């Protein structure tokens, strides 16, 4: 899920294609994570998987492939994204085992049903009371079941520190603005409670036994392939809208140049853009 907005209102429908392409680009990272999980909980014992905050279903389908005996349920609060998940499952031949469930969390938590594996990818932080939500997830896990919580990692980097335009470290300032937005987003959620983000302690507090934590790297070096470059431009265009009135005029002018397809210093023509990021997966057992 993208954190680069300065409002808590999302137009997930309009963002659907970008979310799907973004998740596809992170496919190698998520395949590594799913393979790691399959070593922690044998595939033969996994009959039902919940993908909480599934979005367009890229991870849902991947989980269905890694756990071939399981029914995998894409859980999301956005019907158009669930439609994309359904279409993706049908396209990839996993449609007979993939279900979609429209649910608003935490209110609909009980409707999710039991599971052997719960994958909550960048979704817990959209729930005000994270401690209560984790306890709810714990209650859904079958004995021996595994919760995989994706929270944290490293912000994505795409540009050198000095790009020859404006002040160096533009991306660092964009990340600082996104971090401020994230704090406001959390504060405005219904029932929001401040928590120290000590995930191991929070998982223990939910009655679970914390297991391993691992971070998975995505490293696509310069020069970027065309598909990655196109996604980079879409990402920066989205962030440019979010940064209006947040960054100073000089930084916004640099962003405008980066987004100008005719500018030789723009993202479409630069040879120095790359994609480097990491996601952290915390596990715990019932």
Kindly describe this structure.
- It contains nine helices and seven strands, in the order ααβαβαββαβααβααβ.
- The chain is an alpha/beta fold and 286 residues long.
- The protein has a single domain, classed as Vaccinia Virus protein VP39 (Rossmann fold, 3-Layer(aba) Sandwich).
- Strand 4 (115-121), helix 5 (130-140) and strand 5 form a beta-alpha-beta unit.
- Helix 1 packs across helix 8, helix 2 packs parallel to helix 3 and helix 8 runs antiparallel to helix 9.
- It is globular, with a radius of gyration of 19 Å.
- It starts with 11 loop residues before the first helix and ends with a strand.
- The model is unreliable at 1-8 (pLDDT under 50).
Name the features:
286 residues, alpha/beta, Rossmann fold, seven-stranded mixed beta sheet, 9 helices, 7 strands, 41% helix, globular, disordered N terminus
Structure in a nutshell:
By secondary structure, the protein is of the alpha/beta class. It has nine helices and seven strands.
Summarize the helices and strands and which ones pair or pack.
Blueprint: H1 12-25, H2 27-40, E1 48-52, H3 58-66, E2 71-76, H4 79-92, E3 98-102, E4 115-121, H5 130-140, E5 141-157, H6 170-188, H7 199-205, E6 209-220, H8 226-243, H9 249-258, E7 275-285
Parallel strand pairs: 1-2, 1-4, 2-3, 4-5
Antiparallel strand pairs: 5-7, 6-7
Helix pairs in contact: 1-8, 2-3, 8-9
- Taken in chain order, the helices and strands follow as HHEHEHEEHEHHEHHE
- What gyration radius follows from the Cα positions, in whole Å? 19 Å
CATH homologous superfamily? Answer: Vaccinia Virus protein VP39
Strand content is 15-25%
Biggest sheet, open or closed, and with what strands and sense?
Answer: 7 strands, mixed
- Average pLDDT level: 94
As a percent range, the share of helical residues equals 40-55%
Which structural class matches the secondary elements?
Answer: alpha/beta
What's the number of extended β-strand segments?
Answer: 7
Give the CATH architecture.
3-Layer(aba) Sandwich
Q: What general outline do the C-alpha atoms trace?
A: globular
Whole-number count of domains: 1
């Amino acid at each position: 899920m993208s954190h680069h907005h300065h409002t808590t209102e999302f137009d997930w429908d309009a963002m659907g294609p970008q979310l799907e392409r973004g998740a596809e680009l992170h496919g190698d990272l998520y395949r590594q994570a799913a393979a790691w999980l399959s070593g922690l909980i044998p595939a033969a014992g996994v009959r039902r998987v919940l993908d909480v905050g599934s979005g367009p279903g890229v991870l849902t389908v991947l989980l269905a492939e890694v756990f071939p005996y399981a029914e995998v349920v894409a859980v999301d609060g956005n019907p158009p994204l669930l439609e994309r998940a359904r279409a993706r499952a049908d396209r990839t031949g996993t449609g007979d085992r993939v279900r979609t469930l429209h649910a608003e969390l935490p209110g609909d938590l009980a409707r999710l049903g039991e599971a052997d594996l719960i994958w909550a990818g960048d979704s817990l932080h959209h729930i005000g009371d994270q401690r209560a939500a984790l306890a709810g997830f714990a209650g859904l896990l079958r004995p021996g079941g595994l919760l995989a919580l994706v929270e944290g990692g490293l912000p994505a980097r795409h540009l050198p520190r000095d790009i020859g335009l404006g002040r160096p470290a533009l991306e660092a300032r964009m990340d600082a603005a996104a971090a401020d937005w994230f704090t406001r987003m959390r504060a405005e959620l219904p029932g929001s409670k401040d928590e120290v983000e000590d995930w191991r302690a929070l998982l223990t507090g939910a009655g679970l036994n914390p297991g391993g934590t691992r971070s998975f790297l995505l490293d696509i070096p310069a020069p970027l392939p065309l598909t990655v470059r196109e996604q980079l431009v879409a990402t920066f265009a989205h962030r440019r809208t979010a940064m209006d009135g947040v960054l100073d005029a000089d930084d916004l002018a640099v962003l405008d140049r980066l987004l100008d397809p005719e500018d030789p210093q723009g993202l479409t023509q630069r040879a120095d853009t790359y994609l480097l990021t990491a996601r952290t997966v915390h596990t715990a057992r019932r």
